[in-house]
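Dear support,

We are seeing what looks like truncated structure output for some complexes. This example has two components. We would appreciate it if you could run it in full and send us the complete token output so we can diff it against ours.
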Amino acid sequence: MNIRKYLKVYKKFLHTSLASELEYKTNILVDLITAILSLVGSIFLLSIFFQNNGYIGGWKFEQAMIIQAIYTILNGITNTWFNPNLTEIVKHIREGTLDFVLLKPIDSQFFISLKKINPSGFLEIMLGFLLLFFCIRINQININLSFLTLSSITISCSICILYSLWFFISTTTIWFVKTWNAIEVLRSFLYIGRFPLNSFSFSLRIFFSVFIPIAFITTIPSEVFLGLSVLWKILLEVIVATVFLITSRKFWLFALKFYSSASS
Amino acid sequence: MVQNIINVKNLSKSFDISSKEPGFKGTIKHFFRRQTKSLKVIKDISFEIKEGEIVGFLGANGAGKTTILKMLCGLIYPSEGSILVSGYLPFRRKENFLKNITLIMGQKQQLIWDLPPIESFYLNASIYDLDKFEAKKRIKKLSEMLEIDEELFIPVRKLSLGQRMKSELLAALIHEPNILFLDEPTLGLDINAQRNLRKFLQRYNKETNATICLTSHYMKDITSLCKRVICVHEGRISYNGKLDLLLKKLSPVKEILIVCRTEEDAIKLENSGFSVKNKIKNEITIKIENHSITSSLKTILNNFDIEDLFINEPPIDEVIGKVLIKKNYDI
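Here is the complete output from our reference environment:
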């Protein structure tokens, strides 16, 4: 793979999608306001849950805020990259414009996963990081090299799991044409990621760890921040992320063999 | 000797198609127990195309023209048979193969809707690994050939269909491919825009010796661009050869409208043994076979007092229309 070419293409993707979005100034402004209100609303909701005894599943409000911060960062990434691109796959397949992507001398997964960008998602990512730094202060977390490495690894793995899950569902469009509902269900499950995994019943914990690994996405990185994590969990997250990423890639290449293009 | 650039042997393609009975009951049945059947849309076809040729694919809607084109460019996997395009198996979509081809579809677009076409051109240039200087040079050359200038800087959504199609062409040709697959490129364009597009394709073919495979329902596209046509009927090739031979075979007679000086001359001509289509006062229309047209006209001009005459070719659409509904043409 020619990395220099891919970087050049990605620079063009950034440029064209930013230019496209900036054509609609009001839309960006509304998106920015929505991101702020959504974060305020989420923190308010979280504070209500913690009002009675101050603990949920063994987590204090200040600790649970870390999960909220990581969720906000991931949601920002979802809104910046995943949502504008991966929902577009459905459109590409229904309307047959995937033809143009497949006939370009570039990796089709790279093209359809990164072509667009929603700049208003950046604010959400920024707000997430601000909240995270605030949480680090109030929870008196000691920042050192191993902490930075582990937190970067776990957050990167979370992004990979989230992307793979979404991409996997979008790929099934090649057979089922409309899979919008499945993506909506996935998004609804992601909301659960705002709460500590321990706050759910045993059966739900198993469900969110094994079948839809929401638990890996927010809880494990948060545990790293609080020094509660154990090595096997981090290793497990790395393994899950790698398996998911490879499987989604293989699944895409397999699915393309069944692509029949839309009729003209 | 000119080499074959496309080789197709015993190619077939089947699709799984689901069918639904009408009405609510049919909808429920379709939802719970979907019945699918395998439909063979391309049936054991073989043909070759030489480098630099412009070949038109003719056929009724659903005959399989677009499916053939999509298999040739590697979008669809063939079910049986083999395809070799420029030495590559198309469905493997190797980088060097993709750099050699392009697909233009009249009803689909790749330009970024909210931005001027120039942005899409530079994006494509980066995908094809062209540097900025080279991209600029090619955009300038192609925009001159396509006669577009200011349109390059106007958002695509504000361009007319004709301007958009020209920009689509430029975006699709920026990497200077030597095989062009065009699926109804003039669809929806007005007469002038159609003519300009045809003119451009002719020039592009002449200057670059690019091979062009074209489908179109506008007969003018086929007659002015293609010397050779491949007619597809229900997934099979019904004719593969020169267009003029096909036309001669399909329309062996010409209609000649003769204006006589007097009505008496017209009556005399009517009774002289020619095949008369109709006669109105001193105007008479007769049918003459192509091979005897010169001798027949000589006889008429020598023996009758003629004021004027017109030789009419049968409308091309009508002639080609016959191809679309027949299974085989042996010429």
